[in-house]
Every structure is written in C-alpha cells, then in structure tokens.
Design a protein that fits this description.
mainly alpha; 13 helices
C-alpha cells in the first residue's frame, strides 16, 4: 500500500503580507517603522548621547514607546471612521504586538539594570507601587499578544472579544505607570492621559455621530478639560507644587503649551479632517 501524501505545511504568515500571501506595502511600511524607535535608542546609547545613566534612559524610552504604540493601536478604530480609511485595521494587530515587544524589552532591560537578580526584581515589583502597576499592565498586554493570532480568534469565539476589552484598563494602568514614573514632570504622561480620554469618549458617541464635526469639536473640549483636571489632581495630590498655578498655566503660553492645550490642538485637527472628509464626500456624491 502506498502511503497518502503528507499534508503540506502552510508557510509561516509574514506580517508584511496580506491574507492572500501578497506583499502589502502599507503593512511593510508599518512593520519597518516599528523598529525605528528601538534603532534610534540603540544608536543614542552606542554614541553616548543619553547622559550619565544611558541604560536607564533606554529603559524609560522603551517604556514610553510601549504606551505610545498601545495608544496608536487603540486609535485605529476612530482613525478608520474619521479619516474614512477602511484598510487601516490591517495593522492594528501589528501595532499591538509591537507595543508588547517594546514592553518586554523594557522589562528585560530593567532586569539587566538590576544585574539579573530575579529575586530582587520580583521584590521591587511587589513593593514599589509604580512597578506593580506597570508589571500588571505588561502581563495583560502579554495575554492580548499571545491570543492575537487567527487561531486564537477561532478557538476562543466570543471570549476573544471579551478578553481584548482588557486593552482599555491596560491603557489606564500604563498611563498611570508613566505618570508615577515621571514624578514631577508629567507633561508627556498627561498628554497620553488626555489622548486616552479622547479615545474612550469617542467610543461612547453614537455610531452615526462618530464622524460628525458637531460631535468631535465638543469632544475636543471635553478631552482638553479632562487633561487639565487630571493634571491638576496629580499636582494637588502627589506633589507639593501649587496645583492652582499649574492649572492657570494652561492659559499662559509664555513657557510653552501645556498638555491640555496639546490635546485640544490634536483633537481639533481631527475634527478639521473629519469636516474636510465630509465636505469631499458631499461634493463627489452623484446627484
């Protein structure tokens, strides 16, 4: 008897190819772009451009890029709707896995900075609140990354979507970790917090209003006010810096723009793009 031919193994799916196996230029561009922050940090480290504590600077940088990529991944859905970009979701998984990769690098470099003493690292994570928050967020991000495959989607069914709702509390923990880590100068963490608030508020809009400038402009104001409120609360609770002065600085541009203003600018620009898109659709719509 002749043996039946062995089933052909499917070739590994490369991240820069579409479901049909063809090269997808957009996916390739995003895949290569994900390496850019790491390459820049490595180059700065090698050239001695990161100050007296270069490894600490790289640890901090990889942590920030973890959160930035997580927020960008969360921004895919609103960007698809507002910018009328139906092909954008194809890179969401890649962005999430990229965030996980930077997060694992962040943790690994911290272990190296502690001379590889794992018991000491574990003790620090348990006893230092900001490390506990960050590690919890990373564990959650790892759970999302491990289950991001097509096979996991098929196997888990409806539970897959329930699990991936964890991206929202993970975002809260990640931004909180960045704020705690930043201590006094929390400007970037506050911008992240404001952007996260915008992303969550946008998801609360009725579907028919998610592209409407009449909804996006008030959303910009709300996100900006929330950013100012979060920043005020942080300085009032966690520091000895007069929180009222920080709040008043949002109206004084002499020393630069405050996080609430940056969030407002970004959100207003999104509303402006939505306005342009809506106008273009009305112009090209056939009579």
């Amino acid at each position: 008897m002749t043996r039946p031919p062995a089933p052909r193994r499917r070739p590994a799916k490369l991240p820069w190819r579409d479901r049909a196996g063809r090269l997808a230029p957009f996916k390739l561009a995003v895949f290569l772009a994900l390496f850019a922050p790491g390459i820049v940090l490595a180059g700065q480290f090698a050239l001695g451009m990161l100050g007296a504590r270069p490894l600490n600077a790289v640890i901090h940088g990889t942590g920030l890029w973890t959160i930035r990529l997580l927020l960008i991944a969360l921004a895919v859905t609103p960007a698809r709707a507002v910018f009328d970009w139906p092909g954008l979701p194809v890179v969401r998984r890649m962005l999430g896995v990229g965030a996980l990769a930077y997060g694992l690098t962040h943790l690994s470099l911290y272990v190296i900075d502690q001379n590889g003493h794992m018991l000491h690292v574990a003790s620090e994570i348990i006893h230092r609140f900001y490390l506990t928050i960050g590690f919890t967020a990373l564990v959650g991000l790892a759970a999302l990354g491990i289950t991001s495959t097509d096979a996991s989607v098929r196997r888990m069914g409806k539970n897959w979507k329930r699990l991936h709702w964890l991206a929202y509390p993970i975002g809260v923990l990640a931004v909180f970790h960045a704020t705690l880590q930043s201590k006094i100068d929390v400007s970037e963490a506050m911008v992240m917090a404001g952007c996260f608030v915008w992303l969550m508020l946008w998801r609360l809009l009725p579907v028919e209003r998610q592209r409407s400038p009449l909804a996006l402009l008030p959303l910009a104001a709300l996100a900006s006010a929330a950013t100012a409120g979060i920043e005020y609360t942080w300085y009032a609770v966690a520091t000895r810096i007069p929180a009222e002065r920080v709040l008043a600085a949002n109206l004084d541009f002499e020393d630069g723009l405050r996080p609430a203003v940056w969030v407002l600018i970004v959100a207003v620009c999104i509303a402006a793009v939505a306005t342009a898109r809506n106008h273009r659709r009305s112009v090209v719509r056939p009579a």
